[in-house]
Amino acid sequence: MEGFYYIDKVSHQQYGPFSSESLRGKIQPDTPVWKTGMGDWAEAQNVSELGYLFDANHSQSGSQASDHQFAYQPPLPPQGGQYAPFNQNQMEVRPKPDNWLVLSILATLFCCIPFGIVGIINASKVDGLYYNGDYDGAARASDSAKKWVIAAAISFLVIVIFYFLFFMAMGSL
Question: Are residues 47 and 112 in the same domain?
Answer without folding.
Answer: no
